[in-house]
Specification:
rod-shaped; Rossmann fold; alpha/beta
Length: 565
């Protein structure tokens, strides 16, 4: 899909995308406005005491990292949550508190981050700090009573030894002073022995203190321990994005989702929307494009081109079809027979045929319009004619007064030939345009349309000097075989009418195959009911005169219809 197509779809569905963005943004604004502001506080815990060790081993580090995941789950257990609620006297249940707590582990570390979100900033910090304390109390990290007694005893022994060391150092200092002042050999010998004894006692006491300290360190150094690294602080500003930011984000998200849905709808829509798509699908000449005109509830007479301004887009489209038909004929002066059909029903076939006949007649041609749709005839409604007699009268009843098959009376069909023939050839308000309605409904339309008598009458009409072109309105070609049979019987050129936004590509291609199978390939295609914006997308600048027409004739169409020009 090209970039221009994305732009086209965005502009085509801009109304829906804008509505979705507005609804999404408005809903977000309303919801967020009714919600109180939330605050966020976090506390950080360290698992394992290896951080304090000067030379921690890898086993202790890996164990702390692995234990972090376990403690992350323990934070949200019911005992820890309930203990926090009881400590702070919160009016929350453990399930409600669990929804307020988020726990994460800093990647590659044994640091555990406990995050709490709540509407009260002070209580938010208190909950985070109390959770960390309760986690420590409810975790197997505390010393056993025996270990605590050993540490207390060791500390008491260390205190006593420190007192003893102080006394021994005083005694040693006194002995050293006496040794410095005496000259008596016996006293020197005695003081030396006393000094050595004190030194030995000092060394022993120091060694004992060191041993007790090592024991205390070993008892306090635990791999499975929890220490608060950073307590939670009272937050100052609300957490999360602002209401305006949320509104804009949700509005953009709604617009993006809607545009994605639009792309899916357009991808699944296999109908023909423009003349370019029709040409690509059918590989046939495009005779013209008929823009949308009129209202859905307009009657058939109201949809005649004579009721439109001469410079209207639809009138211009029919004139273009007429001109292109002349150029597609090998000999512009040669009389032609055209079978007009469509792949399916309600695709504007009869209105297109009628308006094309009117346009040709207004150009000075003598046109005979035949309603060969013997199943659902419409031309008598378009021109307000009587349908008591018509084409089936020619094919079942002898139109001459003596009951024999009429011979060609002259080189011109006279206006006063036969009463029955005059009843069948209906004149219209359009000069040079005569219509043969369908007549009564037969039981075998396909057989009589493919009969030799049908071929005979077409030859008779072509031989008349006051008939230049014959247009035959036929049923949809994919529903019945009437149009292909008639085209083969009369050697008529085939005009296929497709309606933009209604005719599917597969149906149009199958219609082309139907006529190729009987040796009557499609002469040209008329794309009916085209939305101007679809055609503008494919043909930049198309509709320049139409814009002027709208401005002069009014009412003026919305500006978005001309965005792609």
């Amino acid at each position: 899909m090209e970039l221009l197509q994305y732009i086209y779809y965005a502009r085509k569905w801009s109304w829906l995308i804008l509505i979705a963005a507005f609804v999404g943004g408005a809903a977000t604004f309303i919801v967020r406005s009714g919600q109180p502001s939330t605050y966020q506080a976090q506390a950080v815990l360290a698992i394992g005491a290896f951080i304090e060790a000067p030379n921690p081993n890898s086993a202790e580090i890996n164990t702390g990292i692995q234990l972090a995941q376990t403690y992350a789950e323990l934070v949200k257990t019911r005992p820890v949550l309930q203990a926090t609620i009881d400590e702070l006297d919160l009016s929350l249940t453990s399930e409600e508190l669990r929804t307020l707590v988020t726990v994460r582990i800093l990647n590659g570390t044994s640091l555990l981050v406990i995050v709490v979100q709540y509407t009260d900033p002070v209580l938010t910090a208190d909950i985070a700090n109390t959770l960390t304390q309760q986690l420590i109390l409810n975790s197997p990290t505390n010393l056993t009573p025996e270990q605590e007694a050993q540490i207390v005893l060791a500390n008491a022994q260390i205190d006593e030894l420190n007192v003893q060391l102080s006394q021994l150092r005083v005694q040693l200092e006194a002995v050293n002073e006496r040794l410095g002042t005496t000259n008596d050999p016996n006293e020197v010998t005695q003081l030396t022995v006393e000094r050595n004894t004190i030194v030995d006692q000092i060394n022993l006491a120091s060694s004992t203190i060191a041993q007790f300290s090592v024991n205390i360190t070993d008892l306090q150094r635990r791999t499975n321990s929890l220490d608060i690294v950073e307590p939670a602080e009272i937050p100052v500003n609300p957490s999360g994005t602002s209401i305006l930011s949320n509104t804009l984000i949700l509005a953009v998200a709604a617009a993006a989702v809607t545009f994605g849905a639009v792309l899916v709808i357009e991808y699944l829509d296999d109908t023909i929307k423009s003349s370019m798509e029709a040409a690509q699908t059918l590989a046939s000449p495009i005779l013209g494009v008929i823009m949308r005109f009129g209202k859905k509830d307009d009657t058939y007479p109201e949809r005649l081109v004579t009721n439109l301004p001469p410079q209207s887009p639809a009138a211009e489209g029919y004139r273009k079809v007429r001109t292109n038909l002349f150029f597609t004929s090998p000999n512009a002066k040669q009389k032609r027979v055209y079978v007009v059909t469509s792949p399916g029903a309600s695709e504007g076939k009869s209105v297109t045929t009628s308006n094309l006949a009117v346009t040709m007649a207004l150009a000075g041609l003598h046109v005979l319009l035949i309603d060969a749709d013997l199943r659902r005839p419409r031309l008598h409604e378009v021109f307000g004619l009587n349908n008591d007699v018509g084409l089936t009268s020619l094919l079942f009843v002898n139109p001459s007064s003596n009951g024999s098959t009429p011979k060609r009376p002259s080189s011109k069909i006279p206006d006063t030939a036969s009463v029955n023939l005059l009843e069948i050839l209906h004149s219209t308000d359009i000069p040079r345009l005569r219509v043969i309605t369908s007549g009564f409904t037969p039981s075998n339309p396909s057989e009589i349309l493919g009969s030799a008598l049908m071929q005979h009458w077409i030859e008779e009409f072509l031989a008349a000097s006051n008939i230049d072109v014959i247009l035959i309105d036929t049923p949809p070609c994919l529903m019945v075989a009437d149009s292909s049979i008639l085209a083969s019987t009369t050697n008529a050129d085939v005009i296929l009418v497709v309606e933009a936004g209604r005719t599917r590509r597969a149906a149009a291609a199958k219609a082309r195959e139907e006529f190729e199978r009987v040796g009557r390939p499609i002469t040209g295609v008329v794309v009916n009911g085209v939305n101007p914006i679809d055609e503008y997308y494919h043909y930049y600048g198309y509709g320049y005169d139409y814009a002027g027409y709208y401005q002069e004739q009014g009412p003026k169409p919305p500006k978005w219809r001309f965005w792609l020009r």
